[in-house]
């Protein structure tokens, strides 16, 4: 699947939620997610712009591969995701194959459906509040349509963020300096 996605940091998720309601959005679900990211044993995903993660979303478990970003405006990329039954077992397999854990991303996510997009209102531990708008690129979810919908939510396209939550957390950690 080719996933098309755009996101932006926001100060007030409730304001965006009210905007979604005014656009006729349908509430889907709320869940806590824990994403454990891994680096490849023989190539650096931070250089190749790929990602491999295990996700715990409520009671559901997933293994996901994301390819490099394909455009300069959004996070459109190839994504392969499969459901798994055993998070710790999958983690042990990856470790046994030489994959290295990089970081864990924890967030609370409220999901909506609106105008063919899935909209996530995310509270990300250590980063703050974000809005993600995504859809399948195959369904004409072009960068312009994604950024246009973001604008309908009251968020300027210039406020969009291409870095993943993992990249944002790693950048924050790198810029924090040594502990006192």
Which features characterize this protein?
globular; eight-stranded antiparallel beta barrel; 180 residues; Hypothetical Protein Pfu-838710-001; alpha+beta; 5 helices
Write the layout of secondary structure elements.
Blueprint: E1 2-10, H1 13-22, E2 26-39, H2 45-48, E3 51-57, E4 60-66, E5 77-84, H3 87-96, E6 100-114, E7 117-124, E8 128-136, H4 143-152, E9 160-161, H5 165-175
Antiparallel strand pairs: 1-5, 1-8, 1-9, 2-3, 2-6, 3-4, 4-5, 6-7, 7-8
Structural class: alpha+beta
Alpha plus pi helix count: 5
CATH classification class: Mainly Beta
The appropriate CATH architecture is Beta Barrel
CATH fold name, please? Answer: Hypothetical Protein Pfu-838710-001
Give the CATH superfamily.
Hypothetical Protein Pfu-838710-001
Query: Mean pLDDT score, rounded?
Result: 92
Order of helices and strands: EHEHEEEHEEEHEH
Q: CA-to-CA gap between the ends?
A: 45 Å
Biggest sheet details: 8 strands, antiparallel, barrel
> In terms of per-residue confidence, which ranges show pLDDT below 50 for 5 or more consecutive residues?
none
Q: Approximately how much beta-strand content do the residues carry?
A: 35-45%
Oligomer: single chain
Could you give the count of β-strands? 9
How large, in whole angstroms, is the Cα Rg?
16 Å
List the strand order in the largest sheet: 1-5-4-3-2-6-7-8
In words, what does this structure look like?
- The protein has 180 residues and is α+β, with helices and mostly antiparallel strands.
- The chain has a single domain (2-174), classed as Hypothetical Protein Pfu-838710-001 (Beta Barrel), CATH 2.40.320.
- The protein contains five helices and nine strands.
- The chain has an eight-stranded antiparallel barrel, surrounded by four helices.
- A hairpin with a 2-residue loop joins strand 3 (51-57) and strand 4 (60-66).
- It is globular.
- The protein starts with a strand and ends in a 5-residue tail after the last helix.
């Amino acid at each position: 699947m080719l996933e098309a996605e755009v996101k932006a940091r926001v100060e007030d998720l409730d304001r965006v939620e009210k905007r979604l309601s005014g656009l006729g959005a349908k509430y889907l679900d709320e869940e806590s997610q824990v994403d454990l990211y891994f680096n490849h044993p023989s190539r650096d995903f931070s250089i190749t712009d790929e990602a491999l993660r295990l996700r715990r979303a409520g009671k559901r478990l997933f293994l996901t591969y994301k390819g490099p970003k394909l455009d300069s405006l959004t996070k459109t990329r190839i994504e392969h995701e499969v459901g798994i039954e055993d998070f710790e077992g999958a983690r042990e397999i990856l470790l046994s194959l030489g994959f290295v854990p990089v970081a864990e991303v924890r967030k609370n996510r409220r999901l909506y459906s609106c105008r063919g997009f899935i909209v996530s209102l995310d509270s990300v531990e250590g980063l703050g509040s974000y809005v993600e708008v995504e859809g399948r690129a195959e369904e004409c979810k072009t960068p312009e349509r994604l950024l246009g919908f973001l604008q309908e939510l009251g968020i300027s396209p210039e406020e969009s963020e291409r870095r993943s939550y993992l990249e944002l957390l790693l950048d924050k950690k790198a810029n924090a300096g040594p502990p006192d």
